[in-house]
Design goal:
By secondary structure, the chain is of the alpha/beta class. It is built from 8 helices and 14 strands. It folds into 2 domains: 14-152, 3-Layer(aba) Sandwich (Rossmann fold); 159-300, Glucose Oxidase, domain 1 (3-Layer(bba) Sandwich), CATH 3.50.30.
Length: 306
């Protein structure tokens, strides 16, 4: 399926702020999200159920899906930004109006638990979605904001995505559509109708507070499913708080060694320690758009918006 590019966000465009996963903890976080959107020159619109709470969810499944669908169907809304991740987007995948997005493409932005929703949208509609900061909780440093603007507000090739401190685990060249995100969600979707198609893809993964043996389990699940036998390359984000202490029974198998053990024999280039995910500032990556790996560097040779 040919990638469907959303229109670039322009100054004065309306952006829906929604909570498709977990709830925010305070009104101050909503205020900050609105301020972030305004600083981009955009107009925030908080979803009617965005402040709902139902345990670890931001309202019922019906409410969270309704906020997303209202934004998807509103021609005046040009972007949909998640306020935070958490848990819950898998529960609403069957209720999303994918046809509305295909008919009226717009920027959809988030990460972490949003991995499920972003990839489902891209695979069902061809629409390029954006793995990037969440409006209420991300840091929006100068670099992070610049990467976001570059991806969703400029209709020009993104070019090289520079990353200080990146590590080339396995060298080589590859190209393919970007797919993936949070590893827990990538693994959880395996075997479902929303399984992420990794055929020829450059797989992106990141994690937070998952011990190396759990990351081993998730990568092993993807190996057993056949997904990792079909990928063209791997981009690994900076996994936040994933190594265990020296007194832990599994300390002898740290994260770096686990990644090498589970990814090192795939015969594809692997780059680790990239600015993707929960650890500090992050790239905004256009899922569904072709990326290129060349000698430890990452390029996106086309624009992500039109």
């Amino acid at each position: 399926m040919k990638p469907l590019l959303p229109p670039a966000l322009r100054e004065g465009d309306a952006v829906a702020l929604i909570s498709p996963a977990g709830p925010l903890s305070s009104d101050e976080e909503f205020v900050r999200a609105e301020e972030i959107v305004r600083s981009l020159g955009l107009v925030p619109r908080i979803g009617r159920y965005a402040k709902s709470k139902r345990g670890y969810l931001a309202g019922t499944d019906e409410e969270r899906a309704a906020d997303f669908n209202d934004a998807a169907r509103d021609p005046e809304v040009r972007g949909i930004f998640a306020l935070r991740g958490g848990y819950g987007t898998m529960r609403i995948l069957g209720a999303i109006d994918y046809d509305a997005l295909a008919a009226n493409p717009k920027v959809v932005l988030g990460y972490s638990d949003l991995t499920a929703l972003l990839n489902a949208i891209t695979q069902r509609t061809g629409l390029v979605t954006f793995h990037g900061p969440v409006a209420a909780l991300s840091k929006f440093t100068e670099n992070e904001t610049a990467w976001l603007r570059r991806a969703v507000m400029r209709s020009e090739p993104l070019g090289e995505l520079e990353a200080a401190g990146a590590n080339t685990m396995l060298p080589g060249s590859a190209r393919g559509p970007l797919r993936g995100g949070n590893l827990s969600l990538v693994a959880a979707l395996a075997g479902t109708p929303y399984e992420i198609d990794m055929s020829g893809a450059v797989m992106v993964i990141e994690e937070i507070e998952e011990a190396p043996y759990r990351i081993d389990r998730m990568l092993t699940q993807l190996r057993l499913s056949g997904a990792l036998s079909r990928i063209a390359g791997v981009l690994v984000g900076r996994c936040a708080n994933c190594d265990v202490g020296e007194d832990h029974p599994y300390a002898a198998m740290p994260l770096a060694k686990t990644l090498a053990d589970r990814l090192g024999d795939l015969g594809v280039p692997v780059i680790t320690d990239l600015p993707v995910g929960h650890e500090g500032e992050q790239w905004t990556l256009p899922l569904g758009l072709e990326a290129r790996i060349d000698d430890g560097r990452v390029f996106i040779d086309s624009a992500a918006v039109r």
